[in-house]
C-alpha cells in the first residue's frame, strides 16, 4: 500500500528535508490524512507554545531558521582548551549504516578512540576493515541491546578496560515494518521499543556516571531520533503515526501476554512500534537534559540525520520497497542523504565545538548546514518525558 502511494506521489512534488511542505502540497491528502490538519507551520499556536516552553527550559530562544554552516569534523577542542588525549566515544550499532559511517568519520580524524558497541563482533570487525578504519583508532566491544544483562555486561567490560568515556552515541535500532506478530527481547519487551529505547535507556543511565567523570572539554550524550517520530512533519504523518497515548502498554511491560506489546496499548504494528521508540529516544534526551545538564555540564542532544535510504534499517522491508525507496527519497522528497554524509553529520554532533548546546534536536538543511529543529508536540511533551522516564526506570530495574 505504501509503495502504491509512493508511486502516486507526483514527480514534481518536492519537499526540503524535514521542512514545512510547500503551500501547494499543504492541502493535499495522503493515506486519507489531511496534511493541513497535522503539519502546522512554525507560527501556529502549537508551534509557538512548544517553542516557548523549550525556550524557557533551555534559557534561550531557538532560531529554527538560522542555520550554521557546518565546520569540518576535524576541528579539535574549543579555543583555549587543549586536548591532550584522544576523545573516547562509544557508538552503538556501529557495524553498519549511520553508526559505521560516524565511526569512520571520527576515526579518520585520528583524534578519537572509537568503541564500536555491536551485537555481532565478526560483522563489526569486517565492516570496520572494509571501511578502511585503522586498528589504532577503534575497538569492538560486544553489546546486545535486546538483553539488559548484555547491557550491564557491556558497561562492566567497558569500565574494566580502564578507558574514559567522553561521548556516548545511542544509534542502534531495529525496524520491523512487515512483521505480523511481535517479537521480544530477552526480558520479554516488544523488540523495537525494547532495543531502541529500553536497551539504550539502561545503557545511558549506567554510563552517565562514566560521562560525569570525564575531563574532556565537551562531554556529550547523543540519542539518534527521527523525522518519522515527529508528527509536525510530512514524513511523520505517513501512517501509522507515532503516538504513545497514555502509556498504558509501556506501564504493562510490553510483553504481549496479558498486556499490549505497544506503548499506547493498541494492537501490534511494527512500523508504529519503531516510530514510538524514536519518540521515546527524543523524550529521553530531553529528560536527561532537564535532570542533568546543569549539574553535570554534559551536552544532551538528538538529531535527524536525513533519510539514509540505503542502510540495513530497511532489511526487513519487501524487496520492491528497498528498490524504490532510495530513488523516491532522492528525486521526489529530496530528503535522501548518503551514508557517508549522514556519518559526517552525526560526527559533528559528537565533536564539533559549535554544537555544544544541550537539549537540542539537530537537523540539516539542503546545504548540509545544521540547525536546531522543532520537535512535535508529543516528542517535546515534558510531562510525557518524565512519565516515560519513570516507567522505563521500573522496566529496566533501576527503580
Ligand atoms: P542499520 O540497520 O544500518 O544500523 C543499525 C545498527 O543497529 C546495526 O549495526 C545493527 O546491528 C544494530 N543493532 C540492531 N539491533 C541491535 C541490538 N539488539 N544490539 C546491538 N546493536 C543492534 O540502520 P541505520 O544506520 O539506518 O540506523 C541507525 C540509526 O539511525 C537508528 O537509530 C535509526 O533509527 C536512525 N535513523 C535512520 C534513518 C534512515 O533513513 N536510515 C533516518 C533517521 C534515523 P547488526 O549490524 O548486527 O544488525
Ligand atoms: Mg517517508 C519530506 C518527505 C519525507 C521524508 C523526509 C521522509 C523520510 N519520508 C517522506 C515522505 C513520505 N514517505 C511520503 C510522502 C510517503 C508516502 C508515499 C512516505 C512513505 C514512507 C514509507 C512507507 N516513508 C518511509 C516509509 C518507511 O517504511 C520508512 C519508515 O517510516 O521507517 C520508519 C520511511 C521513511 N521516510 C523518511 C525516513 C527518514 C524514513 C525512514 C527511517 C526513519 O525514520 O528512521
UniProtKB/TrEMBL annotation:
Stored InterPro entries: NAD(P)-bd_dom_sf, Prochl_reduct, SDR_fam
Keyword hit for NADP: yes
CDD domains from the UniProt entry: LPOR_like_SDR_c_like
Catalytic activity entry: chlorophyllide a + NADP(+) = protochlorophyllide a + NADPH + H(+)
One Pfam family hit: adh_short
Keyword Transcription regulation attributed: no
Task performed by this protein: Phototransformation of protochlorophyllide (Pchlide) to chlorophyllide (Chlide).
UniProt protein name: NADPH-protochlorophyllide oxidoreductase
Species of the source: Ficus carica
Amino acid at each position: 500500500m505504501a509503495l502504491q502511494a509512493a508511486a502516486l506521489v507526483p514527480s514534481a512534488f518536492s519537499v526540503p528535508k524535514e521542512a514545512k511542505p510547500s503551500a501547494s502540497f499543504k492541502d493535499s491528502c495522503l493515506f486519507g490524512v489531511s496534511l493541513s490538519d497535522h503539519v502546522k507551520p512554525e507560527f501556529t499556536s502549537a508551534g509557538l507554545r512548544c517553542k516557548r516552553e523549550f525556550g524557557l527550559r533551555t534559557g534561550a530562544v531557538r532560531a529554527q531558521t538560522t542555520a550554521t554552516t557546518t565546520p569540518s569534523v576535524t576541528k579539535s577542542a574549543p579555543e583555549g582548551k587543549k586536548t591532550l588525549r584522544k576523545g573516547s566515544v562509544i557508538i552503538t550499532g556501529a557495524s553498519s549504516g549511520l553508526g559505521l559511517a560516524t565511526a569512520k568519520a571520527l576515526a579518520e580524524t585520528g583524534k578519537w578512540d572509537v568503541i564500536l558497541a555491536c551485537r555481532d563482533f565478526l560483522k563489526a570487525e569486517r565492516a570496520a576493515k572494509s571501511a578502511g578504519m585503522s586498528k589504532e583508532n577503534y575497538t569492538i566491544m560486544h553489546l546486545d541491546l535486546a538483553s539488559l544483562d548484555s547491557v550491564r555486561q557491556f558497561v562492566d567490560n567497558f569500565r574494566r578496560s580502564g578507558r574514559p568515556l567522553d561521548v556516548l552515541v545511542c544509534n542502534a535500532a531495529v525496524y520491523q515494518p512487515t512483521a505480523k506478530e511481535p517479537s521480544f527481547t530477552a526480558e520479554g519487551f516488544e523488540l523495537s521499543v525494547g532495543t531502541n529505547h529500553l536497551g539504550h535507556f539502561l545503557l545511558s543511565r549506567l554510563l552517565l556516571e562514566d560521562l560525569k567523570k570525564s575531563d574532556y572539554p565537551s562531554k556529550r550524550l547523543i540519542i539518534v531520533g527521527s523525522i518519522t517520530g515527529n508528527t509536525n512533519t510530512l514524513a511523520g504523518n505517513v501512517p501509522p503515526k507515532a503516538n504513545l497515548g497514555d502509556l498504558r502498554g509501556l506501564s504493562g511491560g510490553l510483553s504481549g501476554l496479558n498486556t499490549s506489546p505497544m506503548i499506547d496499548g493498541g494492537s501490534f504494528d511494527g512500523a508504529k512500534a519503531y516510530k514510538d521508540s524514536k519518540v521515546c529516544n527524543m523524550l529521553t534526551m530531553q529528560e536527561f537534559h532537564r535532570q542533568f545538564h546543569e549539574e553535570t555540564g554534559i551536552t544532551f542532544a538528538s538529531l535527524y540525520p536525513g533519510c539514509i535510504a540505503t542502510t540495513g534499517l530497511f532489511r526487513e522491508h519487501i524487496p520492491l520497497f528497498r528498490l524504490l525507496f532510495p530513488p523516491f527519497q532522492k528525486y521526489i522528497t529530496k530528503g535522501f542523504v548518503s551514508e557517508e554524509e549522514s556519518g559526517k553529520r552525526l560526527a559533528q554532533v559528537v565533536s564539533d565545538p559549535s554544537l555544544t548546546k544541550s537539549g537540542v534536536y539537530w537537523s540539516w538543511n539542503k546545504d548540509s548546514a545544521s540547525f536546531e529543529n522543532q520537535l512535535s508536540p508529543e516528542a517535546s511533551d515534558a510531562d510525557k518525558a518524565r512519565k516515560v522516564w519513570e516507567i522505563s526506570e521500573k522496566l529496566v530495574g533501576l527503580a
